[in-house]
């Protein structure tokens, strides 16, 4: 099955813009924005703390952030697989050059194999990680205005 790791450069560009538009709608949905905004309560570091106490507080805060990140990720997955299953299936299909209307024409095992091939391709993953970082930077800049 064709995917973003084994397509032509022209196909890659055309397909990634379709995927970008779909993913944008996810990231800007109220459900996802609400989940992404969830932050744990962090302990404040004060001037009166010893170096060891500060280190301990920072370590605990880092642990809380990681735990919250994991919980947020799981909650986002639930939204994507339950509330937005059609969009999620559309994304899987687009990654494999299958239009959303044709998604049920292939068994899930073919999609899973193709997606596994896709995420094992180091260059494709590096490309999307770079885009995500760029997107986060853009979001941060826009949020400050």
Total count of helical runs of at least 4 residues: 6
Major sheet characteristics: none
Shape estimate: elongated
- Helix % is over 70%
Number of domains: 2
Low-confidence stretches: 139-145
Features:
145 residues, 2 domains, 74% helix, 6 helices, mainly alpha, disordered C terminus, single chain
Description:
The protein is an all-alpha fold. It has two domains: about 1-30 and about 85-145, no CATH class; about 35-85, no CATH class. Helix content is about 75%, strand content about 0%. The chain has six helices and no strands. It has helices at about 10-25, 30-35, 50-85, 85-95, 110-120, 120-145. Helix 1 (about 10-25) runs antiparallel to helix 4 and helix 2 runs antiparallel to helix 3 (about 50-85). It is elongated and about 65 Å long. The chain starts with 8 loop residues before the first helix and ends with a helix. The model is unreliable at about 140-145 (pLDDT under 50).
Write the layout of secondary structure elements.
Layout: H1 9-27, H2 30-37, H3 51-83, H4 85-95, H5 108-120, H6 122-144
